[in-house]
Specification:
The structure is a single chain. This protein is mainly alpha-helical and about 375 residues long. The protein folds into three domains: about 60 residues, no CATH class; about 220 residues, Endonuclease III, domain 1, CATH 1.10.340; about 50 residues, no CATH class. It has 20 helices and six strands. It has a two-stranded antiparallel ribbon with strand order 1-4. A hairpin with a 2-residue loop joins β2 and β3. α7 runs antiparallel to α13. The longest helix is centred in the middle third of the chain and has 18 residues. The radius of gyration is 24 Å and the shape is globular. The two termini are about 15 Å apart.
Length: about 375
């Protein structure tokens, strides 16, 4: 579920049905009525605000005729909900049994909460630490994406995010307009790089890889990210998973599925791969045999967020997962799916890596 903050704002006299957004504030205006309102995401609250404002102006004879056309729009500064495309009916005929039902159920659940990957995942991170860099400077975006992917191995998104912030702020302070860029990193020693990323897993090794990768990019690829998986995996510390995600998000080239440990684990659990599959790379090869290509780019962030928050190893949340309640997951904990969510359980669920309140409210 997206966390939305309440804001009290003051309406301005700007005329019928108009709106104005100034900074982080939102004003609601209807025919010159100045009104202080609390902005909330609940549709009922929005309607209440609308009806209240309309009733205030209904006594004005010159406005009554316009009431049918009044539309009060309430804007909020918030992260938009996740929107992943559902599997089309014609695509559900291929692949393992019930795969499309599982996929679509996860699409529905993922629309109700924000997982770490949604704001701090590798493909989102450059725009998070360097707003609009993807459109403003695609070359820098691709480089920052590469670095975030190299740091992500054996590291939680939250820790990776902090390391990227350290690099960005540190290199901005050194006078580089976009902060983390290849020119800035080439001027650092491996020890200096390590100082910025020292909290991520295997940081010493990654510092060496990053420095070596920058030298290769400068010498062989004109300082930019190559456009083929064959060239990308020649960079030290960069494997196929990172390579395909880099191509998808950096160049818009959808040539393979980026399979991480979450996708690998879940695909095995649901029988989307054969039983003898041992590695993420083997999972990728099997998924690409039957999964329609249009879903290759979405399946990673979709299932990573699900694996981070709901289907967590060693801490299942089957009591709030609709896959269990609808009989789509044979591995679900039946005791949990049939149990009651107590106050203590609710408290624990609310302290996890995402706000699960929307899922809780629909499953108790």
């Amino acid at each position: 579920m997206v966390t939305r903050s309440k804001r009290t704002v003051e309406g301005k006299e700007l005329g019928l049905g108009k709106k104005l957004k100034i900074g982080n504030e939102t004003q609601v205006k209807v025919e010159g009525i100045s009104r202080s309102v609390k902005i909330e995401s609940d549709p009922e609250i929005k309607n209440e605000v609308k009806n209240s404002l309309i009733s205030e102006i209904s006594s004005k004879e010159d406005v009554k005729v316009k009431l049918e056309h009044i539309k009060v729009e309430i804007e909020t500064e918030e992260i938009p909900p996740n929107v992943f495309p559902r599997v089309a009916p014609e695509d559900s005929e291929v692949g393992p049994k019930n795969w499309s039902s599982i996929y679509n159920e996860i699409v529905s659940m993922r629309s109700k909460f924000m997982a770490p990957v949604d704001t701090q995942g590798c493909e989102r991170m450059p725009n998070t630490i360097n707003p609009n860099v993807k459109t403003r400077n695609p070359r820098v975006y691709r480089f920052q994406l590469l670095i975030s992917l190299m740091l992500s191995s054996q590291t939680k998104d939250e820790v990776n995010f902090q390391a990227m912030k350290n690099l960005q702020t540190g290199l901005l302070a050194k006078g580089f307009a976009d902060g983390l860029c290849i020119e800035a990193v080439l001027g650092l020693t491996e020890k200096e790089i390590d100082g910025y990323i020292c909290k991520v897993g295997f940081h010493n090794r990654k510092s060496t890889y990053i420095k070596q990768a920058c030298l290769i990019l400068q010498e062989k690829f004109n300082g930019d990210i190559p456009k083929t998986i064959e060239d990308i995996v020649t960079l030290p510390g960069v494997g196929p998973k990172m390579g395909y995600l880099l191509l998808q998000n950096g160049w818009g080239i959808n040539s393979g599925i980026g399979v991480d440990v979450h996708l690998h684990r879940l695909a095995q659990m649901w029988g989307w791969t054969s039983k003898n599959v041992k590695t993420p790379e083997h999972t990728r090869l099997e998924l690409e045999k039957w999964l329609p290509e249009k879903y290759w780019a979405d399946i990673n962030p979709l299932l990573v967020g699900f694996g981070q928050v709901i289907c967590v190893p060693r801490a299942s949340n089957c009591d709030i997962c609709s896959l269990g309640s609808k009989g789509l997951c044979k591995s679900s904990n039946k005791k949990l799916t049939k149990g009651t969510i107590t106050t203590d359980r609710l408290s624990k669920l609310m302290k996890q890596r995402a706000d699960l309140s929307k899922l809780i409210s629909e499953n108790i």
